[in-house]
Design goal:
Length: 754
Amino acid sequence: MASTGSGLRIPGDDNLQSMLVGTIMRKIKSRTWKKQRYFKLQDDCMTIWYKSKKAGNSHSTFSVSDVEVIREGHQSEVLLSIADEFPADRCFTLVFRGRRGNLDLVAESAEEAQSWIRGIRKLMENLENMGERERLDQWISDWFRKADKNNDGRMNFREVRDLLKMMNVDMNEHHAHRLFTMADRSQSGTLEDDEFVLFYKMLTQREDVLRVFQQYSLDGQTLSQSDLEDFLRDGQLEGDDVQQHAKTLIQRYEPSDTAKLLNAMTFDGFLMYLGSPEGSIFNPRWREIFQDMSQPLCHYFISSSHNTYLMEDQLRGQSSVEGYIRALSRGCRCVEVDCWDGANGEPIVYHGHTFTSRILFKDVVTAVGNYAFKVSEYPVILSMENHCSVEQQRVMARHLNQILGNKLLKSTLDGKAAVGLPSPEDLKGKILLKAKKLGGLEESFSGTADDSQAGEVSDDDEAEMDEDNVRQSVRHRGKKKSKQRLSKELSDCVVYCKSVHFSNFKHSHIHSKFYEVASFTESKARRHLRDTGAEFVHHNCRQLTRVYPSGFRTDSSNFNPQEMWNAGCQIVALNFQTAGEGMDLNDGMFRQNGGCGYVLKPSFMRDAEKTFDPETPQKRDGYQPVTLTIQVISGQQLPKVNIKEDSIVDPLVRVEIYGVPLDQNRQETRYIDNNGFNPVWYDTLRFTVHAPELAMVRFVVEDYDKTSKNDFVGQYTLPLRCMQQGYRHIHLLSKDGTSIPPSSLFVHIRIAEM
């Protein structure tokens, strides 16, 4: 396979040579499950293969592209549990993308561990630096290997037929044989090397893109600079300096040096531009930090996690420090800790009164300290639900101070009484504790603070008990409000985020302080939104609000966060461990602004002088609705969802708009029979959007089924404000939110003010 062979082979690299030979390492699942496995890098330099010495022919594989990061040493709970048995320099952890479990490994020697760590990192780096063309070659090579059943480096027609099924193509045998014969230039009855590449190119010819290219090309062969400028102006609806942009695109994407000299773009260059990040639907400029980060904390939506320690459901799920590492690595800036008294004077974290497993509070604090600022330098809020005795609260305060050191915010920024919340910029590199506090912030500066070592606070300050839970409310009815003892040491760790009980907006407007944070269940927040939406938005101009899932969601499912963003709620806490619509919206919202976990709210939600009610967006100052027109043109290499060999996808595309109630909408294309490989629609969908500043757009591809529920194929979600107009590719994501290259949609987008 000369042409389609390994795109990643690095000649003479000792680490890779040793990985190609293979190594025996221990795979560790727990303190008692430690088994030897033979690990080997395949010849494609992309796939790692491993098998048990005893398990006969059964083996497992994973791709280097599935690995998100490698941690060296005892950097996982599993490896920490066997730290006394195996030294850190022989241990490493492979962390996979999405929600797949880690792979914890112990090598026979420190040198061998380093060889694998350096080798995999090198392959990951090379993969990262691959161009679009190399990625495609790599993908073709993968398909060839899958289809070449007898491993002879050639493909006969029967293998080609099987390949088409694997690739989601339903092609009649006559047409498939015609393509095969055209590609078989050596007339050997098999395809090899570049014959297979030719077959693939004929199979994947982009008639849809060619149609656009020829519409703007005067000679039908190339786009002159003038043609390209016309395309950018009329096709891509760009208003900026199209002359300079056209020059840049030719230099960046045109593979032919001759065309470059003529300031022209061939069809190959045009295809590469449209397949690149610049040609994608998400505006690359909004991927960087582009927003003003110097406004008060309450002016931002903050990426937030609920019951961060849980890896599964709320009743029997595993609690794990890994939950914190994963959330923080996804840009989450507010994590939750439920603390209870543990054995030997050490506080523990778990979902109280359930069968979920327990972890040590100090291990959680260590993980937060280690991972808080790896992805974003902006502040992390530790939202604490405290059920501990005063003695163990003191232990918690000691751990917070000793483990986090200067990262823990212990006083107002300038040491003086503050009049408003600081900004994410002011708080870079700081961890804030959100919990109950004895007295207020002012008392720390007025000299009136109580010097006693503990005090009492109302037990319903942190309204974490689910108001929906009727049985609880019945049980508590008629009882006096209980009090909770709070240690001064823990109270002193709370500065700008004091957890308080919420009465009503009128009371809050008169009495509440800027540093007080109220928590609502989703149903209570919905009630306020429905009854007093404008007051809710106004409240959130001045202080932080946290919303969390109902206690009835024992399966760790999520509510729709958009409802709460409509009210300006900043800390909308979701179960990060659960894939689906809720997390798709969250990922889409926080994909912008450098993925830093903070997104500036629209101006009409930050100005206390303005009124905005999500129920009546047309009544606000500066109301400017838009029309969003989406032509869904085609799909490329959609993944198979049904494992049955003969099954081919019948794809349809649904576009969903999330925003204020008036904007909630969804429309879909027709379904295309038996073609997940290159379906073509040319279907146009139109939407009116009344609050475009808040709107999110979700593209969902499903496999149509007339007898049962459609199967999910892929999705991509982004804010309307981050969409590029014109001809764009949408690179689809799996249910887990990980990329599934080269699956994509090709669309044309137009956004016009009404």
